[in-house]
Each structure stands twice: as C-alpha cells, then as structure tokens.
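Researcher: Next entry in the queue.
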Amino acid sequence: MAVSFRDEAPQIIKDYLFYLETIKQKSHKTVDEYYIDLRTFFRYIKKSRRLVSDDTEFEQIKIDDVDINLIKTITLNDAYAYMDYLYRDRNNKSASRARKCSSLRGYFEYLFSKRHLISTNPISQLETPKNKKTLPKYLTLEQSIELLNAIDGPYRERDYAIVTLFLNCGLRVSEMSGLNYTDIRNDNTMRVLGKGNKERIVYLNSACINAINDYMKVRPADGVKDKKALFISRNHRRLSVKTIQAMVYKYLAKIGLDAQGYSCHKLRHTAATLMYQHGGVDVRILKEVLGHENLGTTEIYTHLSSEQMKNAANSNPLSNVKKKSTDD
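Model: Structure for this entry, 328 residues:
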C-alpha cells in the first residue's frame, strides 16, 4: 500500500506508525496492518458512542478527528466490548482477534510509556483471545521429491532452483522474489533480507548450490530491467511474488496437490519440518534459519509425525509383553 493510504490517520496515530517504522523497524506492510487494526477500533468507538450518524456505513467512518481527549476516555470495558463486536458482528476468527488485541495493546503502551500522554494504560489487562493451535501443513519427503521431479518446461532451471531453495532453506516467498545474484556468496552462503529488513545468512547445501549454478548458466543477461535480480521473468524483470506463487501452484497441481491447501508458505513449512524431523535440527538453530523473531513461532515445528509416535510406542520395553496365561 502507498504511503497515502495512511493520510486519513490523525496525527496521534501517524506518530505511532512513524515510531513503528523507524524505531521498531517494522516492515511497511506490517505498519499498514497496525493502522488498519487501529482504524477499525476507533471506528467502533465512534459508532458505539454515536459520534457519527446512525446511517453512516462502518467502512465510511473517518477517524481523522481522533485526539488524546477521546483516547483518555477509553476503558478496559470498551476493549472487551470491541472484542465481542469483532467476534459476533464481524465474524473474526481467534487469530484475527488476537492480532487486533496485540495492536491495541501496543498502541496504548506506546501512549503510556513512550509518550506519557496517558496516566494509566487501560488496555494493559486486556487478555488475548485463545488461539486454537493447528499443526502447519507440509509435504512429506516423498512428495517433496515428486514435486522437484515434476519441474519441466522452458524455465526448468529457474523453477527448479526456486523450489529447491524453498524446500531446503525455508524462505518466505517475498524473500525469494527479493534475492539478488550478489546475495549468493563464494563461501556457499546466501544473504536473505527478511521481514522488517532484517538480514540473515543462510548456508547452502550441495542441492542448492548445484541448482543455482545450473540456473546461472541460462539466466538472462541482456535487456534485464533489474540487473541484480536473481530470478528473472520471461519479460526480463525481477520475478514477482505473484508469479512465483503461480509457478509453485502449477507444479503442485501437476502432482495432485492443488486443491489441498498447499502453497509457497507450505513449502517453507516443509523445509522446517524436514530439517526437524529427518535432520534432527535443534529448534533454536531452526529459528535462525527461518528468521523467526521469537522461539515460540518456531516451536510449531516440534510436532511429531504419526510415524514417529508409532515408533515411540513400539520402542517402549513393555510393547511386546503379553498377558500371562491363566493355564500357567
């Protein structure tokens, strides 16, 4: 979204967005999401307090007049009533409500502890809605190999390199699109620019090195618009996120996984799961490989496969003990 997207924000919110982007170094996309959450909250406040006419559509409520005087009237009860509104009227799932709760807490904490504009933080005790934990969806080792073997066509080397990096390095699709050929280093490492412009170094195994080398032999050099871009489209531009996603969907469909909720992000899940389950990679190392900020985010990959649970049950020393016969 362009910067003008936030022009309707009041100064007291613009200051917070500026703080998030410059001091906290949140990505532009993340800051936009924070703004949308805060806009929804203040629209709700204005609607519930009848500060706008009853016939005003919710999405048309402007918040450019929100000021510190209004903010000082916000209570914890307002926040809980807002959470109820999100659940009952907007059908927000627990994950969405949890994010909006976090956005609200962050903003009021900023006003309280950073700007000292409010004497107390009324939102500090707001509890986050419980989010049902779901195991990440991923390809099996066999499906991963099948996906790689399905890659063909005029851009075979490029597509094979991309899928190989997804499955071995667990990159985000935005990180894949943003790769430059100068990010591939002579010491078999790769520089990755992640969320919030945070840089990390990823080590490349032989499969990745071979795939990249094969691609570089056929990578277009003449007429390329973004000369540093690693992956080039047929129009000689940097391969976009949408084009990479479409390519991955195409090959997933080829092996019969198109209607089963798989995507580029599921390939990231696959890389993490394979490293943890088959490679025995420590979850703390996995955190650095994936570029996660919190260990808790990485710990979703410590789930056990059904085969591992079966093996655990069979390895119990009592697993083959039989009931003693009554005839003995």
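Model: The longest helix spans residues 28-48.
Researcher: Noted, moving on.
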